[in-house]
Specification:
The protein has one domain. The protein contains six helices and eight strands. The longest helix is centred in the N-terminal third of the chain and has 26 residues.
């Protein structure tokens, strides 16, 4: 049974009332698929560290969101110049997933993992902060950040939609979505409204077989007539016999031995 969730006004404004549930459901499915793949990688890695999980989770968050919106009318999946993964622009929303914690903490404490040139460019599509921020400096203001071409080509009115989530190899804890401003170099965020929880589906899109079960080894039973058939050796008749019209012999004449076993000499 599908549960009807309230539609946040900001989401209705960006995606349209008829599309909000579609976006929310696909984002939830993308994160569940990301978690399933990362956990499978950790299981197959069979190591003490969480490196296989992390190496799969990080690119997987972008990849799975992109897969959910491929072929959806109104969605554009593109790779910004110099960025290793694809982002999704849908209607007026630019979707950006990131992990803010590995344990159960309040999303109000969410910070971006790092603040580099690419993050600064993304936040040129965010609302102006209600309090002082790093963009208050003239050198770092929205108008002075050089935005790479594919981002700069996005339609006017595009708004950055953040998808923060907490997770670890044991579970996907707290996924949200919302709109926020960037406050400082530490990645602190000023949320325009309270971030909304993302509902999650019960199962991933497709279950992966984490390990191939060991196949039983039973001796193969071979029939007595299952081997290769023997090839008879054929000999041609000597030319002299053919010229003299000698009748072919099917069996050679017995050879009379010159001595017997019971001869003394």
């Amino acid at each position: 049974m599908k549960v009807n969730h309230a539609q946040p006004p900001w989401a209705v404004d960006l995606f349209g009332r008829s599309q909000v549930d579609l976006v929310r459901d696909r984002l939830g499915q993308a994160l569940v698929d990301m978690q399933e793949n990362a956990r499978a990688a950790q299981h197959e890695g069979d190591v003490e560290s969480n490196h296989p999980y992390g190496w799969t989770r990080w690119p997987g968050s972008y990849r799975q969101v992109a897969r959910q919106f491929e072929g959806v009318e109104g969605a554009t999946v593109f790779k910004p110049n110099g960025f290793p993964f694809s982002l999704v622009h849908f209607e007026r929303g630019l979707l950006y997933p990131f992990r803010f914690a590995t344990e159960d903490v309040s999303v109000r404490q969410a910070k971006l993992p790092s603040v580099g040139p690419f993050i600064r460019e993304l936040f040129t599509f965010a609302p102006k902060p209600r309090q002082g921020s790093l963009f208050d400096d003239e050198e770092l203001s929205h108008g002075r950040v050089e935005v790479r071409p594919k981002l700069a080509a996005l339609p006017e009115g595009t708004r950055l939609v953040l998808i923060p989530y907490a997770c670890n190899p044991h579970g996907l804890l707290k996924p949200y979505w919302g709109v926020a401003s960037l406050l400082d170099e530490q990645g602190s965020l000023d949320w325009l409204v309270q971030p909304e929880p993302l509902p999650l589906p019960a199962t991933p899109t497709r279950r992966r077989l984490s390990a191939v079960p060991q196949q039983p080894t039973t001796p193969e039973l071979v029939s007595f007539d299952a081997g290769d058939q023997p090839v008879p050796i054929l000999f041609a008749r000597p030319d002299v016999d053919e010229k003299r019209d000698v009748t072919p012999l099917t069996e050679p004449d017995p050879i009379e031995p010159l001595a017997h076993e019971d001869d003394e000499n």
